[in-house]
Structures are given as structure tokens and as C-alpha cells.
Amino acid sequence: MNSPAMVASSTPAAPGFWRRARAHRGFTIGGVLTLALLLSAALSYLWTPHPVYEIDMEARLLPPGARHWLGTDPFGRDVVSLLLVGARASILVGVIAVGIGLVFGAALGLLASARRGWVEELIMRVADFGFAFPAILSAIMLTAVYGPGIVNAIIAIGIYGIPAFARITRAAANAVWSRDYVQAARTSGKGAWAITWQHVLPNIAAVLIVQATIRFAVAILAEAALSYLGLGTQPPQPSWGRMLAEAQTLMFDAPLLAVWPGLAIALSVLGLNLLGDGLRDVLDPRLQGSR
Questions:
Q1: Which structural domains are found in the chain, ordered by start?
Q2: What is the pTM of this model?
């Protein structure tokens, strides 16, 4: 039998959720910016102003105009087209990397909370050790062995997210394990894994959703940084990070080439952070009332 707390936290689509969401300015702005990111990537599969891989040296470094709305890069490629297609890499890396961190991190956090004792201590110490290897350092190590590429970037960013998800899951799960209805379930003879699946996981789902949204923003930043260093998305696939790297040598000739991908990264990260903070407030009416 589901507890009232579990029902409340596992039904974010209730009318109260959408009423609070519409009234939350940060959630609304973040949702609009995140939706714009998703629509840009989706649109790139159907249409771009110009062929994204078309090189036209006669049109190189053109300023914004009627034909090329945001100008062209050193190879004569349309900047708008590059930005639209570059959104694909950011979303691809974000979704898969966050998925890796969420699945493995949440599993470890739930295991630590359910078993306690030396199992919990071991998992948390391994998580602490994992924080010593940020995504860029992990990508450098993977690159040294397997070569640069988007797959290695995804793996590196995903591994970096596991300790964060493990710690947050364990802390949230420990709070649920102390609730009266969980104690009642244990008294009735339910095992640790049944309680974890039926009571703990549904009650911490909102926390994991919020964390996944925020980690998505971190993944986009990490992908841009890795591509900027030449360790992420490889040519000819467009990437916002590599667009910044290519623009740095042209800051005096075409400074806007660095502005557009930088603005795309900033708005995407801002939108996801606002959306994550908004979700945290909206999913917890107590926080919403205190704003």
C-alpha cells in the first residue's frame, strides 16, 4: 500500500504542480530556454539555412546579413546552421552522460542506504575517490588510450556524474528510511529491496529528477570544454566548444564568431539551471511558499 508521502511525491502532474509551475518565474524561463535548445536540435534534422558541411571559401568570415543571418566561419560555413546542428552534440552527450550517472549513481546510493554498515562506508569512500577525477581529466586519460572522440567524452562525463548521484541518492534515501511508514513496512516483514523499490525510490524520484536536470547543464559545459580542447566531438561534426576554439584565433578579425557559440552555451546552461531550481521549488510546496 502506498503511503501518502509517496503518492504526493510521485504525482508531479497533479493540477497543483502545474499551478505552482506557471507561477514560478525561474521555472518558466528555464523551461522556455530548455525547450528552445531541444527544438533547435530537432529543427536541425529537418532544416538548416545552408548545408552545414558545405565549404565556401569565397564566403569566409562574412558579417551577419540577409543571406547569412549570423555570418560565416573561416571555411565559409553558415554560423546559424552550425549552431543548430551543434545543439545535437550537446543534447546527445547530456542525455547519455546524465543517464550513466543517474543509473549507476542511484543504484549505488540505494544500495548504500539499504545495506548500511561497511557497504555504505565502502561506496561513499569510492565516491569520494571518484571526485578526484573530473570529466576533463578522465577524458584525457581515455584519450591517451583510445583516442579523442564523442564516445570517450560521454563516458568521462558520465563517470564523473556517478559520485554526485550516489551521494545525493544515499542522503535522500536515508531520510526516507527513517520515516514511520518504512518502519511499519519493515515490521510487517518486507525485505530491504522491496522497501527500496516500493517506498524509497518513488519518494526520492523528485530529488533525482532535479539533480539530473542540473547535471545536464554540467554535461553541456563539460562537452563544450572537451571539444574546445579537441577531446570531444571531432570534425566535421559541429560542436559549440570547437566553434569557440576555432574563433579564438580570429578575435580581432571576427569577434562575433566567439559570441554566438558562447551565448548558446550560456543560455542553455542558464535555462537548465533555472529549470532545475524551479523543479526543486515546484515539487516541494514548502519551498514554493517560502519564496
A1: 14-290 (1.10.3720.10)
A2: 0.88
